[in-house]
Write the structure tokens for this entry.
Amino acid sequence: MSGEPTPGYAAAGRSEGSAVPDEAGPSEAPLAAESETYELTVNGRALSVQSAWIGESLLHVLRERLGLPGSKNACEQGECGSCSVLLDDALVCACCVLAADAVGSAITTVEGLGADGPTDVQRAFLETGAVQCGFCTPGLIVTIHDLLDRDAEPSDLAIQEALAGNLCRCTGYGRILEAVHRVRAERAGQAAR
Amino acid sequence: MIAPHGVRASTTAPPAARPRTPPRGGVGSDAARPDGPPKVSGAFAFSSDLYAEHMLWGRTLRSPHPAARIVDVDVSEAAAMPGVHAVVTARDVPGRPTYGLEHPDQPVFADDVVRYQGEPVAAVAADHPELAWRATQAIRVTYEELDPLVDAEEAIDAAPIHPDGNVFRHLPIRHGDPDARGDVTVEGTYEVGMQDQAFMGPESGLAIPDGDGGVELYISTQWLHVDREQVAACLDLPPDRVRLTLAGVGGAFGAREDVSLQVHVCLLALRTGRPVKMLYSREESFFGHVHRHPARLWYRHHAERDGTLVKVEARLLLDGGAYASSSTAVIANASCFAAGPYRVPNAVIDGWVVRTNNPPCGAMRGFGAVQTCFAHEAQMDKLAAALDLDPIELRLRNVLRTGDTLVTGQVIRGTAPVREVIEAARDHPLPSEDDADPLTLPGGAGRTADRADVLRGIGFAVGFKNLMYSEGFDDFSTASVRLERGGDGEPVATVHCAAAEVGQGFVTLAQQIVRSVLGVDQVILRPADTQVGSAGSTSASRQTWMSGGAVQTAATAVRDALLRRVGERRGVDVQGARRQLLRLDDGAIVHADDPSFRIPLAEALENGSIEETREYHHDPTDPLDADGQGDAHVAFAFAAHRAVVDVDPELGLIRVVQIATGQDVGRALNPVQVTGQIEGGIAQGLGLAVMEEILVSEGKVLNPSFTDYLIPTTLDMPPVLATLIEQPEPGAPFGAKGVGEPPTISSTPAIVAAVRAATGLDLIRVPVRPPDIALADRPV
């Protein structure tokens, strides 16, 4: 077991950002013929993926090989948005991208967004009560950054449309939308100054 | 437009229930969640994020058939695959072969027969998840298919499909005069489809063998200790050799009350001597947990001409699926609350829950009350129409009040602000019909309708249910609180409680309660685990009351011990003849008669820490007798919902425009979190009303994915206008009631009532599907 405990919870998670070596050994021989070694650029860092089965999704590689479990695995078929990442500035579901296909692309995960302290979106989530179980939260954070970076003042309806690909089962979205409205107002205020 | 969160309507709050000067972040404040920062950064460790050195991946093989005899299971090929470290089946279970929340009737692995599609038959552990999957495909199971028993009504008299029989429970309720008759009667039959909890974080866990025959399990669950009991029994280990720690839980809503992978993953870890992680896919999750019981409900209401209810007759039939889970308690709730939050002097109610070869059903938010609320509220509207009365007025004429008697003969002793929740929901402003963007019409961006083609309707519903466990169950929670000087010399409190945080925010409340009782800013929460006593389940809207009560009681014991310590050291009495002399006030111990006596907490703690552990039990309840009578419940919570909908009658599309609600919360310990529960609960009620159903045909699930099982998105959820009715509940810690379930109970019938009002259709079934509207015979 490695990693720091998360406040209030047991944590057997890996420490963020550490490239964990693959559990290679003689017993993994059966997949060796279907494996590749390649490099991914994640949050500005070049990370090596050693002899990974080529069927692995980007989500799996981020979570299980690169120590970046912030992207979540709620449906793994592109319906829930919990694994939203940016792939060369395009918002994608990491579960629907083959990791080996992402070679040469700049990948941004939730871990890359708040690397220098919480972003305005993350702060707004905390202030409005937008977090409950939190499983959808990282995907929403990435999606909302993508929205507001493209359109600083989206209409309420445009916000709802943009977030409709991110499922949340706890909140009914009320506090989440309030968080987005708060950031929209803050950014508009900063732009006006 | 997003509604501001909860308007608070405090009524008749006795001043004694409020602390004099709430400390920062104490009870009643909008304190921030302690787990919020790691959850927004992605650093929070959910059970699916866990990892251990030399970890293997577990995977389950499940039956493709809903009913079959297992002729043979050949694991030899799978076991011989390189990279596969263990293959286990029923014959490898060392202890009790079955488990179950209330009745251990469910096999860890199917042995001779399978009783539902998706029942586990074997499990494997391998180096890689892909290898684990391939290994399950190499297991040769020979089945002899049987005709599945899929009709709940037939199940009552059909040949038993399990040694325990097909009827989980028949609960009759006979109250008052069974032959009483009203001037007016209305009758109806209703149906509720099978709903899924659809939590976001799929079932997952990490089991680590301790090298000494025992096992540690990091798991997302609702009740650590009841999981441990079942795992230990099935593994034939003493309970203390099975140590459970709560890993981050991605939502629950009832679906994590039953064991899913707990026994399998521990068995694989013990077999291989290595850590094993299991993680369900979304599809497997649909087969890996119980669902909300589908129901068929027949009702006849009798009333006098002025609308006074005379009698309710009801026959309730719930399909429990293949195994018992919590079915016997679900039917108790469905039956006890079948008449709604109204004064009903006479009742003849029969509740049945039966076993079939359909997917097992058990706990989901609202727990039985959801099904009957859909029916009794449709009946109230029908009765209002028959009497030519306003539906809200009819409800107001019959509302329960404190001191009234339920159909179970129990007198309500606590608060019952039913009138207040109805009036609050009624009095919110209605949305305008004119200024809406056309994209907000039913059909959304499809632009399938114009405003002129769209029908608007308004509907209303009221519901209630019990808080905490009922029918004589000894329901308790345990908490330990330690107070000491931290590294910075400031006082710090540490709470140890096994209450499962599943997203609802108990971790916040635990800190708030300790801050209020002990006046400290720093409150640390130890991980929830089985190293402390049971906290009971995070279900039945019970943790705020039960574990909140345990934390409050333990913190109060710490405070009292500290006062005694200071009193002994200073040679002063804690208690005077008529009043308490030493008190903890604003971070210091003060003396009532000596203004110069003031010892800061940090100084009082110089002689070491103080730790107290307490069990909190709620008032005892009684079982129900042969007529379904008895004081079976502790307390009740009420809510009312008003829904506004737009309907495109040609395509049968519905858009919910607004929900207004009044909810009885006792006292809001954290108003923002209460609002989050209300909005989230309404979203699940909306889902059941217009979109969510597990489709089952001949025992087989047709839509086990988020592609085909739809839950509300941001575009489906309307603004919610909420009023919190705060009447502190006598006997409840801080006067607070649980708030999680009531939003899910009456929101569904309110939405369907609104669709009825818009279309004039009967709509006796939820979810309302497009063909139910588009292909219905239009009323003249």
